[in-house]
Amino acid sequence: MPASIGVASGTLFPWIGWAIWKARNRLVFDGFAASPEETLSSAIRLAREWSKDSKPETSGQIRNRRVELPTPNGATIVRSDAAWSGDGNVAGLGWIIFDPTRHKEFQRRMEYIASPLMAEGH
């Protein structure tokens, strides 16, 4: 992309996709049809905001940081995840329940799951 729009080369593509998705949703849910020019302008604006507000990580920073949020005493916490295989529409589900005195782990295989989103929803 040309530097004249104020966005680094290669960073505009995902924003164009996002702007198209948002424009599609506005059409479907609100009946508002945005022009291609409005959609592209929105993508450029979003890309500029992102590049202005995001700070590059230094080489000493760890990329995958686990953030532990404080929990109230006596709280029960549930963490879950899913994996999905399209080769048979099978999902593997797992969840852990942490309570103040112990934790319990669960897992389950499910069949006839049509998508990764459906697996995560289960």
What this model shows, in words?
The protein has helices at residues 13-30, 36-53, 116-121, and strands at residues 77-85, 90-98, 103-111. With 122 residues, it is an alpha+beta fold. It has two domains: 3-53, no CATH class; 77-121, no CATH class. The chain has a three-stranded antiparallel sheet. Strand 1 and strand 2 form a beta hairpin. Helix 1 (13-30) packs across helix 2. The two termini are 41 Å apart. The model has no long low-confidence stretch (mean pLDDT 83).
Supply Rg: 21 Å
Number of domains: 2
Distance between the termini: 41 Å
Largest sheet, spatial ordering of strands = 1-2-3
Overall pLDDT: 83
- Net shape: extended
Q: What is the H-and-E element order?
A: HHEEEH
Number of β-strand runs: 3
| Helix vs. strand class | alpha+beta
What proportion of the residues form beta strands (DSSP E)? Answer: 15-25%
Major pleated sheet? 3 strands, antiparallel
Low-pLDDT windows of residues = none
Indicate the percent of residues in helices: 25-40%
Provide a count of the helices: 3
